[in-house]
Amino acid sequence: MEGTPIRLEMPARPDNLSVIRQALHGVAETAGIEQQLLGDIQMAVTEACTNVILHAYEDGGPLEVEIDLDPEMVTVAVRDTGIGLSSVAKPDDPTRHLGLPMITALTSRLEIGVPKDGRGTEVLMGFALT
Amino acid sequence: MRALLARLRKRDRVGPSAENNGYGGPVSPGSIERGQGAAGVEVLALTGEHDLYTASDLQTQLQAVLTETPAVVVDLTETTFIDSSIVGVLIDARQTAEQSSKGFSVCLAEDSAPTVRRIFEITGLTAALPVLPDRDQASQAAAAGAKTAS
Asked: What is the mean pLDDT of residues A10-26?
């Protein structure tokens, strides 16, 4: 599985969060990733995807999750094609902005930027395997 | 991709898996069950996984219970996953309880799912919320909170 990124794309909707965690479970099981690290990855990726669902779009849009494995690191990129994570403030946001601090606490590497095609936001999270 | 999503969603509906040890295991669908604990305190027990998808349902049920009864416990003993949206709902419920002189507590057992315990550690929730290790103690704390507030 190493060297070939796995890419999922789906509508940015809350009912897809469990689908993403299930996919992460499948990848981790195949790659032999330990349960504790998988739990951390599922938590951080859920938070990044929740940010997309709550803040990236005025009226819905795509959510992309790309998982890349190498011997030392699991890297997960969460991308949207929206207008920026902090641009859409929704009054019903229940997260109290805890998502980003949680991602920071759970990752070995974190980069937030713009995807290569120049549209939207990319959250790149690395999880050390050692 | 549509076939994969359909298959994953179908699996999601099958029910909690015996393989899920609450530490990054397969997905268990979230449900909220209302019951009663010690001292007649209302208990909302969360089973399976809870995130933004179930957060509004939890918020609605908590607000209803806090309106109807003097105290409530959120029992996370059988919860296998929560995220920041659920944490936010719990913090809101605590504030609502304080403002309306009601009792509120959370039950998080020593053997609760490691991922759930971890989010409490990372966010400092254990210090921010009244967290008790079993349903009886949590119910007693919520009942005492209601009495103190009234």
From this structure: 96
The pLDDT confidence band at residue B8, using thresholds 50, 70 and 90, is very low
Which one is predicted more confidently, A119 or B17? A119
ipTM over 0.95 threshold: no
CA gap B54, B32 in Å, rounded: 9
Rounded Cα distance between A117 and A97, Å, is 27
**Burial of B50 per CB tally in 10 Å (0-12, 13-18, 19+):** buried
| Contacting residues for A107 by C-beta, under 8 A, at least 6 apart | A44, A125, A126, A127
- Phi then psi for A12, rounded to 5 degrees? -75, 85
Q: Is A28 exposed, middle or buried (0-12, 13-18, 19+ CB in 10 A)?
A: buried
Are A102 and B122 a contacting pair at CB < 8 A? yes
Distances (CA, A) of A43 to B35, B40, B116: 28, 34, 10
Cα atoms in the 13 Å half-sphere on the side-chain side of B133 = 2
Instruction: Report d(CA B91, CA B72) in Å as an integer.
Output: 13
pTM of the full structure: 0.87
B22: its two tokens: 């609450």
What is the arithmetic mean of pLDDT over B119-136?
92
- Nearest-by-Cβ selection for B84 from A10, A92, A95: A95
As a whole number, mean pLDDT of residues B65-77 equals 96
How close does chain A come to B119, measured CA to CA in Å?
Answer: 8
pLDDT of residue B22: 57
Q: Does A31 touch chain B (CB under 8 A)?
A: no
